[in-house]
Amino acid sequence: MYPKVVLRNKTFYWLMLYFLIVFLFIIFGRTVKLDIGRSSSYVQLIIEYAFLLPNVIICLILLYLDDYRIVTILMKSTVMIIIVSFVVLLVLIGNVDLRRLSTAYENDIEVQTPSFINYTLLHVYALLIPVVYYCCVKINGLYKYLCIVLLVLLSYVVYKSSITASLIIGVVSLLLSISLSSKNIHRTVFFITVLFATFIVFYYSGVFVSILKGILPYFEGSAVEEKIEDALFLLSTGESGGSFAAREDLHQRSWDSFFSNILIGGGMAGGHSSLIDRLATMGLLGFIPYFMIYYSIIKQWVKHFDRFGKRYYYLGVLSVVVMLYSKGLFGQEGNLVFMVLMPLFIMFPDTFLQRMDSK
C-alpha cells in the first residue's frame, strides 16, 4: 500500500527530478554544491539521496494516514525522548561548549565525555521553538507542562550551542511566537507592531549596543563572541567587518555565479548558503525541483492545520528559510525537523481534542 501512496504523490516526482538533474550535472563534470560540500563525486549524490528520500517517504505516509492516534503515539514518545536526551546530555557535558564538542567529534578530536552531539543538529534545534511554543499554548494537562519543560530545555541547548544563527533564529522566533499567541487577529497585529516599533527605537537609541555589550561576557571564548564584536562594529560605524564581511563576500560570490548563467549556474559557490549555493552551481534547472519538494510538502501539510496552527507552522517555515539562506548545511536532521517533526507538533494539540470528541 505505502509504495503506491508515495508514487501517487507529486512531491516524490519532484524529488526524483531533482536527483536526475544533479546526476546529469555530475555526469557532465559539473561541480555542484550540496549540503555535504562542493563535489562532482557520485558519493555526494548518494548522501543527498539519503538525506532527502527517507524523510520525504515518512512525510508522505503520515500525510496519507492522517491518523490522530498515530500522531499521539509518535509525539508523546518524541516529547519524552527529547526531554530525557537533553537532560542526560546536559548532565554529561557540564559546562562544555556544545559547538566545540560537536566539531571535536566530527574532526576525530579526542573528547573527554561519553556523549556527543551532531553539529548540524545544533543548528536545527532552534527551528522547533515556534511549534513547541504552540503546544505549550494549545495543550492542557500533563503534556502542557512537559512541553514547557521541553521549550526551556530547547532554549537552553540553543544558548549552549554558541551558534549565532541558531541564537538569533531562536530569540526572534520565540518573541514572534509570544506575539502570535492571541487568537484575536487585531491583538496579534498590535503585539507585532509594538515589537517592531521597539526594535526601531532600540536600534536608533543605541539600546542594542548596550544590550550586546552586556551579554558579551556570557559568550567569552565562544564563536558568538566574535559575532557580537562584529555586530558592535557594524552598529557603531555602519560598516560590516570580520565574519559579517566574509559572509557577505561568500553570498555575493554565489549570486554572481548564478547571474552569470541563470539556467544552469556559473559553477562557483561561496559555500555558506544552502539556497543560493544551489542556484550558483545548478541554476534554476536544479533549484526549481529542489524548491518544489519543500513547497509541495508545505502545501499538503497546511490543509491539516487550523488558522491558529498555521501561524506557528508558517513561522517555523520562515525559520527554515532563514537557516537555509544563512547556512550551508541542513542535512537529514533539518529535513526530519521540517518534513516530520514541525507538522506533527502542530497536529499534536488537536489529537487531544479529537480524542475528547470521540469519547
What would you say this structure looks like, in words?
The chain is an all-alpha fold and 359 residues long. It is built from 16 helices and two strands. The chain has helices spanning 2-7, 10-27, 42-65, 68-93, 98-106, 119-124, 129-138, 142-161, 164-179, 185-205, 207-215, 223-237, 242-260, 274-301, 307-326, 331-358, and strands at 32-34, 37-39. α11 (207-215) packs antiparallel against α12. The longest helix is centred in the last third of the chain and has 28 residues, at 274-301. The relative contact order is 0.14. Residues 105-116 have low confidence and may be disordered.
Briefly summarize what is shown.
This protein is mainly α and 359 residues long. Helix content is 77%, strand content 2%.
SSE blueprint:
Elements: H1 2-7, H2 10-27, E1 32-34, E2 37-39, H3 42-65, H4 68-93, H5 98-106, H6 119-124, H7 129-138, H8 142-161, H9 164-179, H10 185-205, H11 207-215, H12 223-237, H13 242-260, H14 274-301, H15 307-326, H16 331-358
Helix pairs in contact: 2-3, 2-14, 3-16, 4-8, 4-16, 7-8, 7-9, 7-15, 7-16, 9-15, 11-12, 13-14, 14-15, 15-16
